[in-house]
Amino acid sequence: MTEATKTNDLQKQIIDAFNFRHATKVFNPDRKISDDEFNTILEAARLSPSSFGFEPWQILVVQSPEKRELFRDFSWGANGAFNGTAGQLGTASHFVIFLAHTDATMKHNSEYQQQFMKEVKQLPDDVIGFMNQAFQKFQEHDFHIEGERQITDWSGKQAYIAMGNMMSVAAMLGIDSCPIEGFEVDKATEVLETHFGVDPKLYRPAVMVAFGYRAGEPAYDKTRRTTEQMVKWF
Ligand SMILES: Cc1cc2nc3c(=O)[nH]c(=O)nc-3n(C[C@H](O)[C@H](O)[C@H](O)COP(=O)(O)O)c2cc1C
Q1: What's a Gene Ontology MF term here (predicted)?
Q2: Residue 218 CA, closest ligand 1 atom number
Q3: Looking at the chain, which terminus has fewer C-beta neighbours within 10 angstroms, N or C?
Q4: C-alpha of residue 163 to centroid of ligand 1, in Å
Q5: Is the Cβ–Cβ distance between 179 and 24 less than 8 Å?
């Protein structure tokens, strides 16, 4: 096989996977993703990029049916109420909740960041000093990311990148997924604190994502704007 044929093959596989992926409403409850494949999906999150490399997200994989049910009442985007099914909550092989770090850990010069740069990034002290200054300027001056809400939302943006990578990798493995914002954040925060021991001062729910194998083919064909409508070249 020539290099050019290999590249064409790979491009086709990628585009096929992106066409295969759709926001799956109901999964086949009897089909489970293997540990091996799910670990690959998690690895895609772990290796995802993040602003300044701070990885401001935590991932909860909720496999206990009882724990999943705690979200049902207020998760209209995952409870299947609209189509009379058990929804993604009731049928997904793996159900993930992304938590976003709050200002407690993601405001410039936080204790957490010092530890993170030392232990995870293994940066020398002078580089850490430089990073602190650069990050403070970035938050206060460049991007105006100040205050609890803005910092938590900024963390959430990073979480979405990791989530996107997980869904793309899943699609390449023939695994379905659905990103989920259809829930009440305040109630989810409460459940997470009461039943999962998540301190809302440190973490807030950002987004959820379900993985599994589709129960049936999607009800609608994919619709998108054209590339010309989406992109302007200069
Ligand atoms: C951030 C985000 C949140 C979403 N929330 C939900 C949700 O709560 N429930 C749901 O069924 N679909 C949800 N979707 C799926 C979108 O409706 C879907 O991606 C879009 O309509 C395009 O369809 P496709 O993904 O099947 O191509 C969400 C998508 C994104 C990116």
Answers
A1: oxidoreductase activity, acting on other nitrogenous compounds as donors, with NAD or NADP as acceptor
A2: 26
A3: C
A4: 12
A5: no
What average pLDDT does this structure show over 3-8? 84
Angle, to 10 degrees, between the axis of helix 125-137 and the axis of helix 111-119? Answer: 130
Q: What is the pLDDT of residues 10-40, one digit of tens each?
A: 999 999 999 999 999 999 999 999 999 999 9
DSSP character at residue 138: I
Q: Please, what are the domains in the chain?
A: 25-101+151-215 (3.40.109.10)
Does residue 201 line the site of ligand 1, with CB under 6 A?
A: no
Atom of ligand 1 nearest to the CA of 222: 27
Residue nearest to atom 15 of ligand 1 (CA): 23
CB 183 within 8 A of CB 208: yes
Residue located via tokens 């990034």: 121
- Indicate the SS3 state at residue 109: coil
